[in-house]
Design goal:
Blueprint (H helix, E strand, L loop, with lengths): L5 H109 L6 H34 L1
Length: 155
């Protein structure tokens, strides 16, 4: 290096200055990138803190959806059972009506064999109701008559 010419020394000094300048620029760029990385890490942490409650709410929503889905399945089972019961009740009603018609036919046939007027099941029920109403009206009259007889006997 001591035997180098002045122009070579100037060139070397120039290259050293240029290298030092580039090194300082690179170090500055690295420091800037480190600050940006630190800021990005802080942003990431902040975002995670915001995401965690959202994830928890999402998990809660999923659990609620699962619970409601199970409940809906139970309600659908109840609805199917209700529909089956309605179908059975309708079938029973039709069967009962058929048997009532058969019973009315038998009553008519028996009455015809005896030479009497036939009474249908509906007419029979209406007569039972009428008799019950008459008995209900007669009971207070019987009580009044018993009271009057007691008063007469006492006098």
């Amino acid at each position: 290096l001591e035997s180098a010419s002045v122009s070579d020394k100037i060139l070397l000094d120039s290259l050293k200055v240029d290298g030092d300048s580039r090194l300082a620029s690179a170090e500055s760029e690295i420091a800037s990138l480190k600050r940006a990385l630190g800021d990005s890490m802080a942003d990431l942490q902040s975002t995670r803190q915001k995401i965690d409650p959202l994830n928890e709410a999402l998990d809660n929503s999923r659990a609620e959806i699962e619970r409601l889905t199970e409940r809906l399945g139970g309600l659908q089972n109840i609805e199917m059972e209700r529909d089956a019961l309605h179908a059975r009740a309708e079938s029973f009603k039709v069967d009962l009506e058929r048997k009532t018609i058969e019973a009315d036919k038998m009553r008519t046939q028996l009455a015809a064999e005896r030479g009497e007027r036939a009474v249908s099941g509906h007419e029979e029920e209406a007569l039972r109701i009428k008799v019950s109403e008459l008995i209900a009206r007669l009971e207070p009259m019987e009580r009044d008559l018993a009271r009057v007889e007691e008063e007469r006997d006492a006098a």
